[in-house]
Amino acid sequence: QVQVEESGGGLVQAGDSVMLSCVVSGRRTVDKYAMGWFRQVPGKERDLVAVMTEAGDTNYSDSVKGRFTISRDNAKTTVYLQMNNLKPEGTAVYYCSWWYYKESYYSREYDYWGQGTQVTVSS
User: In the structure, what pLDDT confidence band is assigned to residue 109 with cuts at 50, 70 and 90?
Assistant: First the structure.
């Protein structure tokens, strides 16, 4: 049973840095998988923030590129999101996800989600 749990959110000041953590347990044995961070605000769709494939390839939203960094531990069971120079527009619920795919990481076969962690950035 795949379980995903995020932590690290809270109230921060604009310009601060915060690291979110996500523990993925019970992963299925698959050839291709990805771990990623998404965020969502009221009235908006859930958007990709950063993603890392099983091979370690990464991709970022243009809005966070150069400020956020996704990484993982050696066991590849924990994924992190280092968020630098936070901006008020970064206020959102941040979700961690683990999913597997066949062709491309953005073409999901099935996915699992955490409960989300609130990040509030004050100006």
Answer: confident
